Amino acid sequence: MKKISIFILLVLIGIQFVPMDVPAEVPTKADDELKAPEEVHAILKRACFDCHSNHTDFPWYSSIAPVSWFTKIHVKEGREHMNFSTWASYDDEKKLKYLEKIPKAIKSKMPLPSYLIMHKEAKLSEDDKKLLTEWVSEAAFDLE
Questions:
Q1: Is residue 103 reached through a cis peptide bond, with omega within 30 degrees of 0 on the bond before it?
Q2: By CB distance 3.0 to 4.6 Å, which of 34, 64, 74, 113 could disulfide with 84?
Q3: Radius of gyration (Cα) for the chain, nearest Å?
Q4: Is the preceding omega at residue 66 within 30 degrees of 0, hence cis?
Q5: How far apart, in whole angstroms, are the C-alpha atoms of residue 71 and residue 58?
Q6: What is the DSSP letter of 82?
Q7: Residues 79, 28: contact at Cβ < 8 Å?
Q8: How far apart are CA 103 and CA 111, in angstroms?
Q9: pTM of this structure
């Protein structure tokens, strides 16, 4: 039992040296960032930007493997999927595609339940969801 415990401890220490390079801040042109009403921007910043922008506030536990891998993979995938920091660089068709998905995502799976465990402030209220859905409709109408 003692040998197994030492082995597990050594593995846990060893995996701390396996880096996951996902920067918290990625240089972004201000002109590329999403332009939205202040209320909408505040909700998106609170609930979405950690994974869907180039401005991530990594919590303390994101430095400890294997949690760091899970956290940083989610951020990397979130940025690749849709990134509010590069919103203006998307063509209108791509923006419309994302805008169509936002209401479904906020009703069913976003923010991720695993994220909400440590980030209670990111939970979207019904008013938040309503405001975001209205904004999406207006933004989509403006693009059509």
A1: no
A2: 34
A3: 18
A4: yes
A5: 8
A6: -
A7: no
A8: 12
A9: 0.78
CA 118/CA 70 separation, integer angstroms:
14
d(CA 35, CA 97): 17
Residues sharing a CB contact under 8 Å with residue 128, sequence separation 6 or more, in sequence order: 43, 47, 106
The tens place of each residue's pLDDT in the chain, 144 residues long, gives 788 888 777 666 666 766 667 666 666 777 888 888 999 999 999 999 988 999 888 788 777 877 777 788 888 899 999 999 999 899 888 988 998 888 888 888 888 888 888 889 999 999 999 999 999 888 776 666
> In 3-state terms, the chain is what percent helix, strand and coil (to 5)?
70, 0, 30
Q: Report which secondary-structure segment, H or E, holds 6.
A: helix 2-14
Tell me the longest C-alpha to C-alpha distance in the chain. Answer: 66
In order of 8, 10, 13, 14, 66, the CA distances from 17 in angstroms are 15, 12, 8, 6, 11
Q: SS3 of 55, please?
A: strand
Q: Does residue 111 have a cis peptide bond before it, meaning omega lies within 30 degrees of 0?
A: yes
3-class secondary-structure state, position 25: strand
Residue 131 CA to residue 88 CA, distance in Å, equals 21
